[in-house]
Amino acid sequence: MRKSIENGRTELFSRSSSDGWRGIIGDTFTMGNIRRLGIGIARYLKTKGGVRSVFVGYDTRFLSDRSAGVLTQVLAGAGIRTVQSSRAIPTPVVSFFTHRRNYDLGVSITASHNPYYYNGVKIRMPFGGAPPGQVVERITSMIPKREGKDVPGVRVPRVDPTPSYIGVVRSFIDRRLLAQRKQSMVVDAMHGTTAGLLSKMLEGTKVIVHDLHSDHDPYFGGCAPEPQANTVHALAREVRHRHAAFGVEHDGDGDRIVAFHPRHGFLSPHDLLCMFIVYLVEYRHARGMVLGSATITRRAAQLAQHYRLDYREFGVGFYNAAAVMRDVPVVAAGEDNGGIGIGSFLPERDGTFNAALLCEANARVPGGLSALVRRVEQLCGRTTFVRLCLPFDRSIQGKIDAVVRSLYPRCTHADCDDGMKYRMSNGDWVYCRASGTEPLVRVYLETRSRAASIRLVRALKQHCTARQ
Protein backbone atom coordinates (compact mmCIF):
# COMPACT_ATOMS: atom_id res chain seq x y z
CA MET A 1 0.00 0.00 0.00
CA ARG A 2 2.01 2.93 -1.29
CA LYS A 3 -0.08 5.94 -0.28
CA SER A 4 0.61 7.24 3.22
CA ILE A 5 -1.49 9.37 5.53
CA GLU A 6 0.00 11.54 8.22
CA ASN A 7 -2.07 13.24 10.89
CA GLY A 8 -5.19 12.92 8.75
CA ARG A 9 -4.39 16.19 6.93
CA THR A 10 -4.21 16.67 3.17
CA GLU A 11 -2.82 19.95 1.85
CA LEU A 12 -4.71 21.46 -1.07
CA PHE A 13 -1.61 21.70 -3.20
CA SER A 14 -0.46 18.17 -2.73
CA ARG A 15 -1.84 15.53 -5.08
CA SER A 16 -4.95 14.86 -3.03
CA SER A 17 -7.05 13.65 -5.95
CA SER A 18 -6.24 11.86 -9.17
CA ASP A 19 -6.91 14.88 -11.38
CA GLY A 20 -6.30 17.95 -9.24
CA TRP A 21 -6.30 19.28 -5.71
CA ARG A 22 -8.76 19.27 -2.83
CA GLY A 23 -9.02 20.78 0.64
CA ILE A 24 -11.26 22.05 3.42
CA ILE A 25 -12.76 25.49 2.83
CA GLY A 26 -11.02 28.09 4.96
CA ASP A 27 -8.21 25.69 5.88
CA THR A 28 -6.25 24.74 2.78
CA PHE A 29 -8.86 25.79 0.24
CA THR A 30 -8.45 29.58 0.40
CA MET A 31 -8.49 32.43 -2.08
CA GLY A 32 -4.77 32.83 -1.47
CA ASN A 33 -4.15 29.25 -2.55
CA ILE A 34 -6.44 29.71 -5.55
CA ARG A 35 -4.26 32.65 -6.62
CA ARG A 36 -1.15 30.53 -6.16
CA LEU A 37 -2.68 27.79 -8.27
CA GLY A 38 -3.55 30.32 -10.97
CA ILE A 39 0.09 31.32 -11.20
CA GLY A 40 1.13 27.68 -11.39
CA ILE A 41 -1.31 26.96 -14.22
CA ALA A 42 -0.18 30.09 -16.10
CA ARG A 43 3.48 29.12 -15.73
CA TYR A 44 2.73 25.63 -16.97
CA LEU A 45 0.93 26.91 -20.06
CA LYS A 46 3.64 29.43 -20.86
CA THR A 47 6.23 26.66 -21.07
CA LYS A 48 4.38 25.51 -24.18
CA GLY A 49 4.86 28.85 -25.95
CA GLY A 50 2.40 30.91 -27.97
CA VAL A 51 -0.98 32.21 -26.85
CA ARG A 52 -2.65 29.73 -24.51
CA SER A 53 -6.26 29.41 -23.41
CA VAL A 54 -8.24 28.08 -20.43
CA PHE A 55 -11.93 27.44 -19.82
CA VAL A 56 -13.03 27.65 -16.18
CA GLY A 57 -16.21 26.10 -14.81
CA TYR A 58 -17.51 25.67 -11.27
CA ASP A 59 -20.03 23.68 -9.22
CA THR A 60 -22.69 24.60 -6.64
CA ARG A 61 -20.50 24.59 -3.52
CA PHE A 62 -19.71 27.43 -1.15
CA LEU A 63 -17.38 29.94 -2.85
CA SER A 64 -17.11 27.98 -6.10
CA ASP A 65 -18.34 30.88 -8.24
CA ARG A 66 -16.11 33.37 -6.42
CA SER A 67 -13.13 31.00 -6.60
CA ALA A 68 -13.66 30.67 -10.36
CA GLY A 69 -13.69 34.46 -10.64
CA VAL A 70 -10.46 34.84 -8.67
CA LEU A 71 -8.74 32.12 -10.71
CA THR A 72 -9.78 33.64 -14.03
CA GLN A 73 -8.51 37.08 -12.97
CA VAL A 74 -5.09 35.65 -12.16
CA LEU A 75 -4.92 33.68 -15.40
CA ALA A 76 -6.11 36.57 -17.55
CA GLY A 77 -3.74 38.93 -15.77
CA ALA A 78 -0.88 36.57 -16.62
CA GLY A 79 -1.72 36.81 -20.31
CA ILE A 80 -3.69 33.57 -20.66
CA ARG A 81 -6.81 33.79 -22.84
CA THR A 82 -9.43 32.88 -20.26
CA VAL A 83 -13.17 32.21 -20.52
CA GLN A 84 -15.44 31.44 -17.55
CA SER A 85 -18.75 29.62 -17.40
CA SER A 86 -21.69 31.89 -16.67
CA ARG A 87 -23.34 29.23 -14.47
CA ALA A 88 -22.58 26.18 -12.35
CA ILE A 89 -21.94 23.21 -14.67
CA PRO A 90 -20.95 19.55 -14.33
CA THR A 91 -17.30 18.63 -14.75
CA PRO A 92 -18.16 16.53 -17.86
CA VAL A 93 -19.50 19.70 -19.47
CA VAL A 94 -16.16 21.40 -18.73
CA SER A 95 -14.45 18.44 -20.41
CA PHE A 96 -16.79 18.62 -23.39
CA PHE A 97 -16.40 22.38 -23.90
CA THR A 98 -12.62 22.26 -23.45
CA HIS A 99 -12.47 19.69 -26.24
CA ARG A 100 -15.14 21.32 -28.40
CA ARG A 101 -13.50 24.77 -28.38
CA ASN A 102 -9.94 23.44 -28.31
CA TYR A 103 -8.85 25.11 -25.08
CA ASP A 104 -5.39 24.21 -23.83
CA LEU A 105 -6.82 23.36 -20.41
CA GLY A 106 -10.15 23.10 -18.70
CA VAL A 107 -10.54 23.83 -14.99
CA SER A 108 -13.48 22.86 -12.79
CA ILE A 109 -13.87 24.32 -9.29
CA THR A 110 -15.35 21.34 -7.45
CA ALA A 111 -14.81 18.82 -4.69
CA SER A 112 -16.93 16.25 -6.51
CA HIS A 113 -18.56 13.88 -3.98
CA ASN A 114 -16.87 15.18 -0.82
CA PRO A 115 -18.83 16.79 2.05
CA TYR A 116 -19.98 20.40 1.78
CA TYR A 117 -17.01 21.82 3.70
CA TYR A 118 -14.59 20.67 0.99
CA ASN A 119 -13.79 22.33 -2.30
CA GLY A 120 -11.15 21.75 -4.91
CA VAL A 121 -9.93 22.05 -8.48
CA LYS A 122 -10.01 19.51 -11.31
CA ILE A 123 -7.95 19.81 -14.48
CA ARG A 124 -9.23 18.69 -17.88
CA MET A 125 -7.28 18.22 -21.10
CA PRO A 126 -7.99 19.31 -24.71
CA PHE A 127 -8.96 15.73 -25.60
CA GLY A 128 -11.93 16.03 -23.21
CA GLY A 129 -10.80 13.99 -20.24
CA ALA A 130 -8.76 13.83 -17.05
CA PRO A 131 -5.04 14.66 -17.23
CA PRO A 132 -2.15 12.24 -16.96
CA GLY A 133 -0.62 12.33 -13.50
CA GLN A 134 2.49 14.14 -14.68
CA VAL A 135 0.44 17.19 -15.73
CA VAL A 136 -0.92 17.70 -12.21
CA GLU A 137 2.54 17.08 -10.76
CA ARG A 138 4.16 19.58 -13.11
CA ILE A 139 1.62 22.30 -12.35
CA THR A 140 2.10 21.59 -8.64
CA SER A 141 5.87 22.06 -9.02
CA MET A 142 5.27 25.51 -10.52
CA ILE A 143 3.01 26.85 -7.76
CA PRO A 144 4.77 29.67 -5.89
CA LYS A 145 5.12 29.75 -2.12
CA ARG A 146 3.51 33.18 -1.96
CA GLU A 147 0.11 34.05 -3.37
CA GLY A 148 -0.31 36.31 -6.36
CA LYS A 149 -2.61 39.27 -6.77
CA ASP A 150 -5.68 39.95 -8.84
CA VAL A 151 -5.20 42.23 -11.80
CA PRO A 152 -7.93 44.89 -11.58
CA GLY A 153 -9.78 45.82 -14.73
CA VAL A 154 -9.20 42.55 -16.59
CA ARG A 155 -12.42 41.55 -18.29
CA VAL A 156 -13.05 37.82 -18.61
CA PRO A 157 -15.81 36.76 -21.02
CA ARG A 158 -18.49 34.40 -19.71
CA VAL A 159 -20.36 31.78 -21.72
CA ASP A 160 -22.94 29.08 -21.06
CA PRO A 161 -21.67 25.84 -22.62
CA THR A 162 -24.75 23.76 -21.81
CA PRO A 163 -26.71 24.46 -25.04
CA SER A 164 -23.77 23.21 -27.11
CA TYR A 165 -23.35 20.19 -24.83
CA ILE A 166 -27.05 19.32 -24.98
CA GLY A 167 -27.05 19.58 -28.77
CA VAL A 168 -24.12 17.18 -29.17
CA VAL A 169 -25.47 14.62 -26.68
CA ARG A 170 -28.80 14.70 -28.52
CA SER A 171 -26.98 13.67 -31.69
CA PHE A 172 -25.64 10.56 -29.91
CA ILE A 173 -29.01 9.48 -28.52
CA ASP A 174 -31.81 8.02 -30.64
CA ARG A 175 -34.32 10.82 -30.06
CA ARG A 176 -36.63 9.45 -32.76
CA LEU A 177 -37.05 6.32 -30.68
CA LEU A 178 -37.55 8.35 -27.49
CA ALA A 179 -40.19 10.41 -29.28
CA GLN A 180 -42.18 7.23 -29.94
CA ARG A 181 -41.96 5.38 -26.61
CA LYS A 182 -43.47 7.01 -23.54
CA GLN A 183 -41.64 6.52 -20.28
CA SER A 184 -40.98 8.44 -17.08
CA MET A 185 -37.88 8.53 -14.90
CA VAL A 186 -36.51 10.43 -11.91
CA VAL A 187 -33.20 12.30 -11.63
CA ASP A 188 -31.80 13.02 -8.17
CA ALA A 189 -29.18 15.74 -8.65
CA MET A 190 -28.30 15.71 -4.93
CA HIS A 191 -28.39 19.55 -5.11
CA GLY A 192 -25.51 19.43 -7.59
CA THR A 193 -24.75 20.62 -11.09
CA THR A 194 -26.90 18.14 -13.04
CA ALA A 195 -30.15 19.74 -11.84
CA GLY A 196 -32.56 20.11 -14.78
CA LEU A 197 -29.95 19.12 -17.37
CA LEU A 198 -31.50 15.84 -18.55
CA SER A 199 -34.96 17.46 -18.65
CA LYS A 200 -33.69 20.01 -21.17
CA MET A 201 -31.80 17.36 -23.11
CA LEU A 202 -34.92 15.21 -23.60
CA GLU A 203 -37.36 18.02 -24.42
CA GLY A 204 -39.41 17.07 -27.47
CA THR A 205 -39.41 13.37 -26.63
CA LYS A 206 -41.94 11.28 -24.71
CA VAL A 207 -39.60 10.87 -21.77
CA ILE A 208 -41.01 12.57 -18.68
CA VAL A 209 -38.20 13.55 -16.33
CA HIS A 210 -39.03 14.23 -12.67
CA ASP A 211 -36.29 16.24 -10.97
CA LEU A 212 -35.45 15.59 -7.31
CA HIS A 213 -33.22 17.73 -5.07
CA SER A 214 -32.66 20.15 -7.92
CA ASP A 215 -32.66 23.27 -5.73
CA HIS A 216 -29.42 25.06 -4.87
CA ASP A 217 -28.24 23.92 -1.43
CA PRO A 218 -24.50 24.21 -0.68
CA TYR A 219 -25.04 21.91 2.31
CA PHE A 220 -26.30 19.16 -0.07
CA GLY A 221 -29.20 18.34 2.21
CA GLY A 222 -26.87 17.56 5.09
CA CYS A 223 -25.02 14.64 3.49
CA ALA A 224 -22.12 14.30 1.10
CA PRO A 225 -23.29 14.35 -2.57
CA GLU A 226 -21.98 10.84 -3.21
CA PRO A 227 -24.44 8.43 -4.87
CA GLN A 228 -24.40 5.00 -3.28
CA ALA A 229 -26.76 2.38 -1.85
CA ASN A 230 -27.50 4.27 1.37
CA THR A 231 -28.38 7.55 -0.40
CA VAL A 232 -31.10 6.36 -2.80
CA HIS A 233 -33.98 6.09 -0.30
CA ALA A 234 -35.59 9.36 -1.41
CA LEU A 235 -35.03 8.42 -5.04
CA ALA A 236 -36.69 5.04 -4.46
CA ARG A 237 -39.73 6.67 -2.86
CA GLU A 238 -40.05 9.11 -5.74
CA VAL A 239 -39.74 6.38 -8.38
CA ARG A 240 -42.50 4.39 -6.71
CA HIS A 241 -44.68 7.47 -6.11
CA ARG A 242 -44.38 8.55 -9.76
CA HIS A 243 -44.72 4.98 -11.08
CA ALA A 244 -41.54 5.73 -13.00
CA ALA A 245 -39.62 3.17 -15.02
CA PHE A 246 -36.42 3.90 -13.09
CA GLY A 247 -34.45 6.66 -11.42
CA VAL A 248 -30.81 7.82 -11.37
CA GLU A 249 -28.69 9.71 -8.87
CA HIS A 250 -25.61 11.84 -9.58
CA ASP A 251 -22.82 13.26 -7.46
CA GLY A 252 -22.13 16.95 -6.90
CA ASP A 253 -20.24 17.60 -10.13
CA GLY A 254 -22.17 15.15 -12.29
CA ASP A 255 -19.60 12.57 -13.37
CA ARG A 256 -21.05 9.65 -11.38
CA ILE A 257 -24.25 7.65 -11.57
CA VAL A 258 -26.18 4.97 -9.70
CA ALA A 259 -29.76 3.91 -10.37
CA PHE A 260 -32.89 2.51 -8.76
CA HIS A 261 -35.33 0.15 -10.47
CA PRO A 262 -38.77 -0.60 -8.96
CA ARG A 263 -38.33 -4.34 -9.56
CA HIS A 264 -34.61 -4.83 -8.98
CA GLY A 265 -33.95 -2.13 -6.40
CA PHE A 266 -30.55 -0.42 -6.20
CA LEU A 267 -28.47 -0.74 -9.36
CA SER A 268 -24.82 -0.23 -8.48
CA PRO A 269 -22.10 1.08 -10.80
CA HIS A 270 -21.10 -2.57 -11.26
CA ASP A 271 -24.61 -3.43 -12.44
CA LEU A 272 -24.80 -0.39 -14.70
CA LEU A 273 -21.44 -1.00 -16.35
CA CYS A 274 -22.48 -4.57 -17.18
CA MET A 275 -25.85 -3.40 -18.48
CA PHE A 276 -24.15 -0.82 -20.69
CA ILE A 277 -21.79 -3.45 -22.09
CA VAL A 278 -24.69 -5.76 -22.97
CA TYR A 279 -26.75 -2.94 -24.48
CA LEU A 280 -23.94 -1.39 -26.49
CA VAL A 281 -22.74 -4.71 -27.91
CA GLU A 282 -26.05 -6.47 -28.53
CA TYR A 283 -28.22 -3.50 -29.55
CA ARG A 284 -25.79 -0.82 -30.77
CA HIS A 285 -23.31 -3.33 -32.22
CA ALA A 286 -20.35 -1.63 -30.55
CA ARG A 287 -16.93 -3.26 -30.72
CA GLY A 288 -13.76 -2.44 -28.86
CA MET A 289 -12.06 -2.95 -25.55
CA VAL A 290 -13.76 -3.09 -22.14
CA LEU A 291 -11.98 -1.28 -19.30
CA GLY A 292 -12.53 -1.81 -15.59
CA SER A 293 -10.84 -0.37 -12.54
CA ALA A 294 -9.09 -2.65 -10.06
CA THR A 295 -12.22 -2.38 -7.90
CA ILE A 296 -14.89 -3.09 -10.51
CA THR A 297 -16.96 -6.28 -10.72
CA ARG A 298 -15.37 -9.31 -12.34
CA ARG A 299 -18.57 -9.63 -14.38
CA ALA A 300 -17.25 -6.92 -16.71
CA ALA A 301 -14.32 -9.18 -17.65
CA GLN A 302 -16.70 -12.14 -18.02
CA LEU A 303 -18.86 -10.17 -20.45
CA ALA A 304 -15.83 -9.09 -22.46
CA GLN A 305 -14.79 -12.73 -22.72
CA HIS A 306 -18.30 -13.76 -23.76
CA TYR A 307 -18.38 -11.15 -26.54
CA ARG A 308 -14.76 -11.89 -27.51
CA LEU A 309 -13.59 -8.43 -26.58
CA ASP A 310 -10.27 -7.50 -25.00
CA TYR A 311 -10.46 -6.58 -21.33
CA ARG A 312 -8.00 -4.37 -19.46
CA GLU A 313 -7.86 -3.46 -15.79
CA PHE A 314 -6.74 0.07 -14.91
CA GLY A 315 -5.52 1.61 -11.67
CA VAL A 316 -7.47 3.97 -9.44
CA GLY A 317 -8.20 7.23 -11.25
CA PHE A 318 -10.18 7.54 -14.47
CA TYR A 319 -7.26 9.28 -16.16
CA ASN A 320 -5.82 5.77 -16.54
CA ALA A 321 -8.88 4.74 -18.56
CA ALA A 322 -8.88 8.00 -20.54
CA ALA A 323 -5.34 7.32 -21.72
CA VAL A 324 -6.53 4.06 -23.30
CA MET A 325 -9.80 5.51 -24.64
CA ARG A 326 -7.84 8.11 -26.61
CA ASP A 327 -5.87 5.49 -28.51
CA VAL A 328 -8.14 2.49 -29.16
CA PRO A 329 -11.89 1.85 -29.58
CA VAL A 330 -13.51 1.22 -26.19
CA VAL A 331 -17.04 0.00 -25.57
CA ALA A 332 -17.21 1.21 -21.97
CA ALA A 333 -14.98 1.90 -18.98
CA GLY A 334 -16.12 1.84 -15.38
CA GLU A 335 -15.14 2.41 -11.76
CA ASP A 336 -16.88 1.17 -8.63
CA ASN A 337 -17.62 4.76 -7.52
CA GLY A 338 -20.12 5.36 -10.33
CA GLY A 339 -17.79 6.81 -12.93
CA ILE A 340 -18.66 5.23 -16.29
CA GLY A 341 -17.34 6.39 -19.65
CA ILE A 342 -18.79 5.41 -23.04
CA GLY A 343 -16.09 5.13 -25.69
CA SER A 344 -18.19 6.49 -28.56
CA PHE A 345 -18.62 9.85 -26.77
CA LEU A 346 -15.63 11.23 -24.82
CA PRO A 347 -12.82 9.69 -22.73
CA GLU A 348 -14.64 10.93 -19.66
CA ARG A 349 -17.17 9.86 -17.04
CA ASP A 350 -20.52 11.56 -17.64
CA GLY A 351 -23.55 10.88 -15.44
CA THR A 352 -26.04 12.79 -17.58
CA PHE A 353 -24.95 11.16 -20.85
CA ASN A 354 -25.22 7.80 -19.10
CA ALA A 355 -28.74 8.62 -17.89
CA ALA A 356 -29.82 9.56 -21.42
CA LEU A 357 -28.38 6.29 -22.73
CA LEU A 358 -30.33 4.37 -20.06
CA CYS A 359 -33.51 6.03 -21.33
CA GLU A 360 -32.69 4.89 -24.85
CA ALA A 361 -31.97 1.35 -23.65
CA ASN A 362 -35.21 1.23 -21.68
CA ALA A 363 -37.10 2.20 -24.82
CA ARG A 364 -35.28 -0.10 -27.26
CA VAL A 365 -34.78 -3.34 -25.33
CA PRO A 366 -37.91 -5.53 -25.13
CA GLY A 367 -38.62 -5.63 -21.42
CA GLY A 368 -36.60 -2.47 -20.76
CA LEU A 369 -33.83 -2.21 -18.18
CA SER A 370 -35.23 -5.19 -16.34
CA ALA A 371 -34.40 -7.38 -19.34
CA LEU A 372 -30.81 -6.08 -19.30
CA VAL A 373 -30.48 -6.97 -15.61
CA ARG A 374 -31.70 -10.49 -16.33
CA ARG A 375 -29.39 -10.81 -19.34
CA VAL A 376 -26.36 -9.91 -17.20
CA GLU A 377 -27.42 -12.48 -14.60
CA GLN A 378 -27.90 -15.09 -17.33
CA LEU A 379 -24.38 -14.55 -18.65
CA CYS A 380 -22.49 -13.91 -15.40
CA GLY A 381 -24.60 -14.97 -12.45
CA ARG A 382 -24.90 -12.82 -9.32
CA THR A 383 -22.24 -11.43 -7.02
CA THR A 384 -22.17 -9.33 -3.86
CA PHE A 385 -19.99 -6.22 -3.67
CA VAL A 386 -19.09 -4.35 -0.47
CA ARG A 387 -17.04 -1.22 0.13
CA LEU A 388 -15.72 -0.80 3.68
CA CYS A 389 -13.78 2.02 5.35
CA LEU A 390 -11.37 1.16 8.16
CA PRO A 391 -9.43 3.60 10.38
CA PHE A 392 -5.83 3.97 9.29
CA ASP A 393 -2.91 2.81 11.40
CA ARG A 394 0.57 1.67 10.41
CA SER A 395 -0.22 -1.99 11.03
CA ILE A 396 -3.47 -2.05 9.03
CA GLN A 397 -2.00 -3.84 6.00
CA GLY A 398 -0.77 -6.70 8.14
CA LYS A 399 -4.15 -7.02 9.85
CA ILE A 400 -6.03 -7.15 6.55
CA ASP A 401 -3.56 -9.68 5.18
CA ALA A 402 -4.03 -11.93 8.21
CA VAL A 403 -7.83 -11.82 7.96
CA VAL A 404 -7.94 -12.57 4.24
CA ARG A 405 -5.45 -15.43 4.46
CA SER A 406 -7.25 -16.99 7.42
CA LEU A 407 -10.46 -17.21 5.34
CA TYR A 408 -8.79 -17.90 1.97
CA PRO A 409 -5.52 -19.79 2.62
CA ARG A 410 -4.87 -20.34 -1.10
CA CYS A 411 -5.39 -16.73 -2.23
CA THR A 412 -2.83 -14.91 -4.33
CA HIS A 413 -2.01 -11.22 -4.01
CA ALA A 414 -0.54 -8.46 -6.14
CA ASP A 415 0.90 -5.08 -5.17
CA CYS A 416 -0.93 -2.53 -7.35
CA ASP A 417 -0.09 1.14 -7.95
CA ASP A 418 -1.81 2.36 -4.81
CA GLY A 419 -3.01 -0.76 -3.02
CA MET A 420 -3.08 -4.53 -2.67
CA LYS A 421 -5.41 -6.96 -4.42
CA TYR A 422 -6.12 -10.50 -3.24
CA ARG A 423 -7.61 -13.01 -5.69
CA MET A 424 -9.31 -16.23 -4.61
CA SER A 425 -9.51 -19.49 -6.56
CA ASN A 426 -13.33 -19.21 -6.78
CA GLY A 427 -13.18 -15.72 -8.34
CA ASP A 428 -13.76 -13.72 -5.13
CA TRP A 429 -11.38 -10.81 -4.55
CA VAL A 430 -10.41 -8.17 -1.98
CA TYR A 431 -8.72 -4.84 -2.74
CA CYS A 432 -7.44 -2.39 -0.15
CA ARG A 433 -5.88 1.04 -0.51
CA ALA A 434 -5.21 4.09 1.61
CA SER A 435 -7.48 7.09 1.01
CA GLY A 436 -5.70 10.11 -0.39
CA THR A 437 -7.92 12.60 1.42
CA GLU A 438 -8.86 11.03 4.77
CA PRO A 439 -7.15 8.92 7.49
CA LEU A 440 -8.91 5.81 6.23
CA VAL A 441 -8.18 2.60 4.39
CA ARG A 442 -10.78 1.64 1.81
CA VAL A 443 -11.47 -2.07 1.39
CA TYR A 444 -13.42 -3.39 -1.59
CA LEU A 445 -14.58 -6.97 -1.93
CA GLU A 446 -16.68 -9.04 -4.31
CA THR A 447 -17.91 -12.53 -3.46
CA ARG A 448 -20.20 -15.10 -5.03
CA SER A 449 -22.50 -15.13 -2.00
CA ARG A 450 -23.86 -12.63 0.50
CA ALA A 451 -22.88 -14.99 3.34
CA ALA A 452 -19.23 -14.90 2.27
CA SER A 453 -19.28 -11.07 2.20
CA ILE A 454 -20.84 -10.88 5.65
CA ARG A 455 -18.26 -13.29 7.07
CA LEU A 456 -15.37 -11.33 5.57
CA VAL A 457 -16.69 -7.92 6.62
CA ARG A 458 -17.27 -9.07 10.19
CA ALA A 459 -13.75 -10.45 10.42
CA LEU A 460 -12.20 -7.27 9.03
CA LYS A 461 -14.15 -5.05 11.43
CA GLN A 462 -13.32 -7.25 14.40
CA HIS A 463 -9.57 -7.49 13.77
CA CYS A 464 -8.87 -4.10 12.17
CA THR A 465 -10.80 -1.81 14.52
CA ALA A 466 -10.00 -3.49 17.84
CA ARG A 467 -7.92 -1.36 20.20
CA GLN A 468 -4.40 -2.57 20.83
Which key phrases capture this entry?
22% strand; Alpha-D-Glucose-1,6-Bisphosphate, Chain A, domain 3; alpha/beta; 468 residues; six-stranded mixed sheet; disordered N terminus; 20 strands; five-stranded mixed sheet; TATA-Binding Protein; 3 domains
Report what the structure shows.
This protein folds into 3 domains: 20-160, Alpha-D-Glucose-1,6-Bisphosphate, Chain A, domain 3, CATH 3.40.120.10; 175-380, Alpha-D-Glucose-1,6-Bisphosphate, Chain A, domain 3 (3-Layer(aba) Sandwich); 384-464, TATA-Binding Protein. Helix content is 35%, strand content 22%. The chain has helices at 31-46, 64-77, 91-100, 133-141, 162-172, 175-178, 197-201, 233-242, 269-282, 299-306, 319-325, 351-364, 368-380, 396-407, 450-464, and strands at residues 20-24, 53-58, 81-85, 105-109, 118-124, 158-159, 183-188, 207-212, 246-249, 258-261, 265-267, 289-293, 311-314, 330-334, 340-342, 384-391, 412-415, 419-423, 429-434, 440-447. The strands form 4 sheets. Strands 1-5-4-2-3-6 form a 6-stranded mixed beta sheet, with helices on both faces. The chain has a 5-stranded mixed beta sheet with strand order 8-7-9-10-11, with helices on both faces. β18 (419-423) and β19 (429-434) form a beta hairpin. α9 (269-282) crosses α13 and α14 (396-407) runs antiparallel to α15 (450-464). It is globular. The two termini are 21 Å apart.
